[in-house]
Structures are given as structure tokens and as C-alpha cells.
């Protein structure tokens, strides 16, 4: 009888040990994320988000703070986002500048798969009613890469906030990387 009792105990101990190894691997796995968006209030929000991601063990970069200022942003951003080290690029399209960045990066085969495009739900190609050229490009990006997310402007909205989307997706990506689902 004692042998039968020890077998379940050993199995449980092995499961607990495996769980600790997985949790440790996830904690030790880091990803590099770039946060793109508008200046002003948008920049302040990205800085708060950068701090949140850092507290979760991720490296978040904001071009205005972390990229060389003496080089033209349109050149340095494309060069750095094309690097293999950068794994996710969240772009909150909330101004003409970020719309321009999105269309530039959407056409770059090294950057486009990394893009996680955040758009107000009214401009989302599936949920909104906009028939603009930009919404059409969102639809193409969604069809090809599958990463266009509708966001709401405030709490209480049916759609999640930018922060909620970025934190959830970044954390899941990190877990998938730690567990070997992403190379």
C-alpha cells in the first residue's frame, strides 16, 4: 500500500517540478517590442506602457526616446525595425504621421509580419463603417498578416484599450516564445 501511495506522490512532485521549470523559463524569456504612435498625449501613454512592459520583464522601445535623434526618423526606424532582434512592433494609428508609418512598414517584408496594428474600432475593416483608403490597407494587412486590432477610446467601451491589447498580446507572445512555439 505504501508503494501505491508513493507513486502518486512522485508523479505529483514531477508535475510540480516541471511547472516550476516552465515558470522560470517564461520569467527568463525576454522580447524586444517597439511602441509607435502619436506624440504629445500618445507619447506619454507609450511611456507608461513601456514602464508596465518593463515591470513584466520585457524590453520596450520608444523611437522618440530610444532611437538616435540625429538620424532621420523615417530611415532609422525602418533600419532598426527590420532587425531580427525586434520581435513585435505595436503601432497605434492615431495621427497622419502614424498612418504614414503604418503604410510604409506594411510594405516592408521584414517589418510587416511584426506589426500589431491598433486602430479605433470605427476605422477597423471588420467592425467599423469606414470606407477610406487607409481602412482598405488595414483590411489587406488583416488578410495577409492577421494583426489589426480594434481598440476603444475609453473604459466601458466594448473594445479593449490600447494598453490591454498590448499587454495581453506581448505576454502571450513571450510565453509562446519561452515554450518553443516561436523560433
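^ C-alpha cells above, recovered residues below v
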Amino acid at each position: 500500500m505504501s508503494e501505491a501511495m508513493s507513486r502518486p506522490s512522485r508523479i505529483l512532485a514531477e508535475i510540480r517540478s516541471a511547472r516550476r521549470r516552465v515558470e522560470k523559463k517564461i520569467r527568463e524569456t525576454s522580447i524586444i517590442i517597439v511602441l509607435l504612435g502619436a506624440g504629445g498625449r500618445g507619447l506619454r501613454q507609450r511611456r507608461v506602457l513601456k514602464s508596465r512592459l518593463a515591470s513584466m520583464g520585457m524590453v520596450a522601445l520608444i523611437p522618440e526616446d530610444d532611437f538616435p535623434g540625429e538620424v532621420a526618423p523615417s530611415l532609422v526606424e525602418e533600419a532598426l525595425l527590420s532587425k531580427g532582434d525586434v520581435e513585435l512592433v505595436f503601432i497605434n494609428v492615431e495621427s497622419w504621421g502614424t498612418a504614414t508609418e503604418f503604410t510604409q512598414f506594411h510594405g516592408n517584408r521584414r517589418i510587416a509580419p511584426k506589426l500589431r496594428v491598433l486602430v479605433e474600432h470605427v476605422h477597423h475593416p471588420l467592425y467599423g463603417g469606414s470606407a477610406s483608403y487607409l481602412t482598405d490597407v488595414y483590411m489587406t494587412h488583416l488578410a495577409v498578416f492577421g494583426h489589426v486590432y480594434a481598440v476603444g477610446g475609453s473604459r466601458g467601451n466594448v473594445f479593449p484599450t490600447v494598453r490591454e491589447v498590448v499587454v495581453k498580446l506581448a505576454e502571450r507572445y513571450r510565453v509562446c516564445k519561452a515554450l518553443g512555439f516561436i523560433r
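The first strand starts at residue 32 and ends at 36.
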